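batch_manifest entry 22 of 60
target: Guanylate kinase
source organism: Flavobacterium plurextorum
requested by: lab member K.T.
priority: normal
notes from requester: please return tokens only, no post-processing; we will run our own comparison against the previous entry in this batch. if the run fails, retry once and flag.
--- input ---
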Amino acid sequence: MNKGKLIVFSAPSGSGKTTIVKHLLGKEDLNLEFSISAASREPRGEEEHGKDYYFISLEQFKKHIKAEEFLEWEEVYRDNFYGTLKSEIERIWALGKNVIFDIDVAGGLRIKHKFPEQTLAVFVKPPSVDELKRRLKQRSTESDDKINMRIAKASVELATAPQFDTIIKNYDLDTAKEEAYQLVKEFINK
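--- output ---
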């Protein structure tokens, strides 16, 4: 199997990583395909199974864990699991493409650890925790309790930034998108 590169984008919720990843997916010269994560939760808003996530039951998720079918997985919140199925990476590599991840920091670091030479691990840093909170509130997709949980988690996630290959400071989205494009292009072409 032809193994391509692995491009990991991690950040606290609201940092802009999903917007940056979507921007990069639109750049044909990067030959990227999005790694769809599995999740043991219900879809939110406009999310679609097989496009945004593979939504599977908690019981099914645990079966995949037991069978060692995940490249990485984590219980992000109680009974709320996320992970990357090995079959997803194989599917993308079979297409001859490079894999791009929009993934939490623990999962991103696990992938980097398993494939150190093939992986570019990028941490997207928000301007501040206050700005992060403002962005999460602006989304209007979650309760104040959920937002506060995400903010508490963000402090822990921000401390992991130095473990990544590079940090993009997302103070200005257009600048962050361009910086991400240049980084990924250089990594893929080396």
